[in-house]
Write a structure and sequence with these properties.
Chain A is 70% helix and 0% strand. The longest helix of chain A has 34 residues. In chain B, strands 2-1-3-4 form a four-stranded parallel beta sheet, sandwiched between helices. A two-stranded parallel ribbon of chain B has the order 5-6. The radius of gyration of chain B is 21 Å and the shape is globular. Classes of the chains: A mainly alpha, B alpha/beta. The interface between A and B is medium-sized, with 26 and 30 residues.
Chain lengths: 481, 312
């Protein structure tokens, strides 16, 4: 079920009202059934995969807690193998076979005819964090099977995160949440804000991006640049919009999920970007891969190597294709290069002394990140290579004075008027982000006259209904991971 | 909770009411104009179709068929009244098939020329046609009531959006191109010659299409064929006109579709894809819209195919 669908609105109203209507002791069951229904809206049979990992990890958690010495590690290994095994079969098997077949054309190995279960990488990573935290002694094993299943399956974050930690969420399912006017209205506001980002900005920009990226060889120069810049904002609005709706819908019932985005395109370095983009994944890799590899306690060059490996794995996490691996490697290279520069050539780093140098840093980081998005978005390696090599081809400033050229190469299928509306919406979003550097816009609004406040909410919802791209319920980009 | 519920209901009613009132106002303002767009031609096409005695020839399909035929020429050569019902691919396969199922009579011959991408069309275009021509409501396949409700919601929001843009920028948002207006059609439902003679414009819609499994779509066509035959009519399939460059670019996908049609379609195919390929210069504004004089060549070719099957 997509968050940007009528079905979800109906589902949300029923689940949230039901949650407060039934006694606390049955609420876990209500949420679990709702989450199963939510997941089965995609491909029902895939719930069996979830069920499989839930059963394994539930028992693994108890066994890890009760065991001593090597046995603890053995149970953890079983749990991790089960989770990674599911990922390997459903996500990476065909990619692996494709490459083997390329290398050894004489031995044609068969492909699996399967679809990737929605959000597989998200819930397996969340499940793994439970087993690891129990092993580390940071979390007590959950004895209530239903509550543990709910930890993995809680519908707001089931298919695209945030990838939660058991310490943050599990206890919340045991707690009794009374109806709170503040939680309800704050949650709804966050959902509306997420919907605004997704359907008004992200989905409208996707019309422009898809036009070029679905057929890149028909374009060169300006349209490739426009589509690539648009994709940077499309993916941000799509994914952070999803996260806002997830956080908001959980908050209406009194649950607090972790923040996943923090104005990433205002970052002044690549490492800062990764502290602000998909925070739940970055911290997952930090806690469960980078630190176990030695973190900052190993020799300097080993640190750099580990950093690169983590980014490479992060690329592979996103998708089973060379494009994602290259995207991860590119970010790994940028992070390593920045550390080397800071160590050996700190004098060449432009110091942030005023607004101008800050803007230069922000723009530079945006350009580097956006260049990486080319590999992320392109359908094939050949497309990515074409786009990179033709990004600056055939650019003539004089063309920008030609209305037909602008229509075909800059507006990319949107009317001039409509593009202006999308740009205004984007500007509004960025202004809100900028304003929220120091203070919450919610708190600011709370001090205003109630007519002005509710007028603003009504206007936002009306804007979404009128200017949102609802023609086709478009999937969230991160659902494919 | 009571305070919240009251506020939530009030704000929902306020927004829904504002949208509804706006839509009513816009409908009163804009519909005389909307009825003059290409969509309004459905009224004229059906009005003439009702007056024609059977056996008749009904041409259905996307805009390739709207641009690609001269029905008067066909009438002369075949000795049967011809009505070109085609409008646009965005009407969708189900809409076109339901429309013909609803209106066909014993003895009629249906010439079906869909574009290569057998889409289900644009729900908004279908909804607009329903707004302009009530019986078109029966041609839209909604899977359930919620689907129909969603289509209504999206349609209302689109109409308001278009009106706001129109108001903000003081000019029509919808294209006012003569070729895409109700006045561009002849009585028989083809485009007027004066439109076809316009110069060759840069060709749009040259997007690549990939190999797709069309079993589901072909099953729909077969179901329509069976129902039409039950009524005593006959449907023939003909490939759409397509520009040389677009054909070459998608030759593999087109061949794949041809194989699927050959294997699964329960009616006679009058030609092969290559028979409907014309030089790029023969097209008006998209890779599917033939202009003068090649639309006559295409008309003559298809008339020839029909003559051959009618003799049998």
């Amino acid at each position: 079920m997509l968050f940007n669908s009528v079905e979800f609105i109906i589902f949300f109203l029923i689940v949230t009202s039901g949650y407060f209507a039934i006694p606390h002791k049955f609420r876990w069951l209500w949420l679990l059934l709702a989450s199963c229904y939510f997941y089965m809206f995609f491909i029902p049979v895939y719930i069996l995969i979830l069920g499989f990992t839930i059963v394994i990890d539930y028992f693994a958690g108890i066994l890890i807690e009760n065991a001593q010495g090597k046995k603890r590690k053995a149970y953890l290994t079983i749990s991790l193998i089960a989770n990674i095994g599911v990922l390997a079969v459903f996500k990476y098997y065909n990619f692996f076979i494709e490459n083997i077949n390329l290398l050894l054309p004489a031995h044609h190995l068969p492909y699996l005819s399967i679809l990737l279960p929605v959000g597989l990488s998200f819930h397996t990573f969340q499940a793994m964090s439970y087993s690891i935290e129990v092993y580390r002694g940071n979390q007590k094993a959950e004895r209530h099977f239903g509550i543990y299943a709910l930890y993995v399956m809680f519908y707001p974050q089931l298919v695209a995160g945030p990838i939660e930690r058991p310490q943050n969420v599990l206890h919340q399912f045991h707690e009794k949440h009374e109806f709170s006017y503040k939680n309800m209205t704050d949650g709804l506001k966050l959902m509306a804000w997420g919907m605004f980002k997704k359907v008004v900005i992200g989905d409208n920009l996707s019309l422009m991006v898809d036009r070029v990226y679905n057929d890149p060889t028909s374009y060169e120069g300006v349209p490739l640049i426009v589509a690539t810049v648009c994709f940077a904002f499309q993916i941000y609005c799509d994914f952070s919009g999803y996260s806002d709706i997830a956080l908001g819908s959980a908050q209406t019932m009194g649950f607090k999920l972790m923040k996943n985005f923090d104005r990433p395109y205002f970052s002044k370095s690549i490492s800062e970007f990764w502290r602000r983009w998909h925070i739940s994944l970055s911290t997952w890799f930090r806690d469960y891969l980078y630190i176990p590899l030695g973190g900052n306690k190993v020799p300097y060059f080993r640190q750099l190597f580990n950093l690169f490996v983590v980014m490479l794995v992060s690329g592979l996490w996103h998708g089973a294709s060379w494009n994602f691996i290259i995207w991860g490697a590119l970010h790994g290279f940028l992070l390593v290069a920045a550390r080397l520069r800071d160590t050996y050539l700190p004098q060449i780093r432009l110091k942030i002394t005023n607004l101008f140098t800050k803007i230069i840093h922000v723009l530079l980081v945006f350009v580097l990140v956006d260049f990486g998005w080319i590999f992320f978005r392109a359908s094939t390696w050949a497309d990515a290579r074409y786009i990179v090599t033709h990004l600056f081809s055939n650019i003539r400033l004089a063309d920008l004075r030609n209305a037909d050229y602008l229509r075909d190469n800059v507006f990319l299928g949107l009317s001039k008027q409509y593009l202006l509306v999308v740009l205004l919406s984007w500007l509004f979003m960025e202004s809100v982000h900028y304003y929220q550097r120091n203070k919450s816009i919610g708190l600011m609004l709370a001090t205003k006259n109630k007519w002005l406040r509710w007028g603003a909410y009504a206007l936002l919802v009306t804007w979404i209904l009128i200017f949102g791209a609802f023609e086709k319920s478009s999937q969230f980009i991160y659902f494919q991971f | 909770m009571k305070k919240f519920l009251i506020k939530a209901i009030l704000i929902t009613l306020f927004i829904a009411g504002a949208l509804f009132v706006s839509f009513r106002y816009i409908r009163a303002q804009r519909y005389p104009y909307n009825a003059q767009t290409m969509a309004g031609a459905i009224i004229d096409k059906h009005a003439r179709l009702r007056t024609l005695p059977s056996p008749r020839i009904l041409i259905i399909g996307g805009s390739n068929a709207m641009f690609g035929y001269n029905s008067r020429e066909m009438e002369k050569k075949l000795g049967l009244p011809v009505q070109n019902m085609s409008l646009a691919a965005s009407l969708g396969l189900s809409f076109m098939l339901n429309e013909v199922k609803e209106n066909v009579r014993a003895g009629d011959i249906v010439l079906f020329s869909p574009e290569y991408f057998l889409t289900e069309g644009d729900a908004n275009v279908q909804r607009l046609l329903r707004e302009l021509y009530k019986p078109a409501g029966k041609y839209i396949d909604y899977t359930n009531k919620l689907e129909a409700l969603k289509a209504d919601g999206v349609f209302i929001s689109r109409e308001i959006r278009n009106y706001i843009l129109l108001f903000m920028f003081r000019k029509p948002v919808n294209t006012d191109d003569e070729a895409y207006s109700r006045r561009a059609f002849t009585e028989t439902g083809d485009l007027k010659d004066s439109i076809r003679l316009q110069t060759h414009l840069p060709l749009r819609d040259g997007l690549p299409f990939s190999k797709t499994d069309y079993s589901h779509n072909i099953a729909k066509i077969n179901n329509c064929i069976a129902q039409i035959e039950q009524k005593g009519a006959k449907l023939y399939f003909v490939y759409p006109s397509i520009a040389q460059s677009q054909y070459q670019r998608n030759a593999e996908a087109i061949e794949d579709l041809h194989q699927q049609f050959t294997a699964k379609l329960h009616t006679q195919m009058l030609n092969k894809p290559i028979d409907s390929v014309y030089p790029d210069s023969s097209f008006y504004d998209t890779v599917y819209h033939l202009r003068s004089p090649d639309y006559l060549t295409h008309t003559n070719k298809v008339t020839g195919y029909l003559q051959a099957v009618l003799k049998k």
